[in-house]
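Why do we care about 3D structure at all? Because function follows from shape, and shape follows, mostly, from sequence. That is the central idea of this module. The next example makes it concrete: a single protein chain, its amino acid sequence, and then its structure expressed as tokens.
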Amino acid sequence: MNTSIKLAGVTLKNPVMTASGTFGSGAEYSEFVDLNQLGAVVTKGVANIPWPGNPTPRIAEVSSGMLNAIGLQNPGIDVFMKRDIPFLQQYDTKIIVNVCGKTTEDYCEVVEKLADCPVDLLEINISCPNVKEGGIAFGQNPKSVEAITREVKKYAKQPIIMKLSPNVTDITETAKAAEAGGADVLSLINTLTGMKIDVERQRFAIANKTGGLSGPAIKPVAVRMVYQVANAVKIPLIGMGGICNAEDALEFILAGATAVSVGTANFSNPNTTLEVVDGIEDYMRRHQVEDVKDLIGLVK
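And the structure:
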């Protein structure tokens, strides 16, 4: 039985990885999770300089998920290269670095610094607010998506994953723009914009007013978007959004995702990723599937 998959020429032992921002850079979870069992670890977003993040409170629980407005707090690329990459190198798993920035130049600076580092793929988080465009996320305008993808590709030695925002009218437009710009892989979906109000205090539950909605509540939207994009582009997809078990992961694979990322579920059950790996293998045995690749996009 073969569970290995390929993303832009990089072989993962199985299609299961962590979602950026929900797993740190692996160190804090390594006490609970055997990182050697994962297809890949996707790090928290890293920028060219340290980012302090948003004011608190930054997280609120909601029905079937959570809202977060962490603001991509991170120590910056220099600390990351010195501390986090050597830690992850100890494990037999692929390393995917999530890159964030406020300008195209910010992204390119990080990508250039990572060019000779022992990391396998780069995931470009284009849901960051583009300061030069008045704070509208890079990922909401197809022209911006194509332009930033093309620019990042000039500096990247590793394959590039463009992480798509669902906060658009038609996600196939931004997906096709990323593909046209030279993206090797797409990951989707990032969080949906949401809001919660504390009625007793009569104020916003999160200091930022809005936050990113993640967890089981967004899964049906995510599966639909993965299906649409899988039928609109020719490059592989990583599906994410509310995956809590193997059945959830298999929905994404059957809809057209080559790999899957587990995010919010890590907070309530750190073992979720390992349970998903085991559950996919169990499903393959029960359905007499020899190769997990035979399941990708099976439902038309």
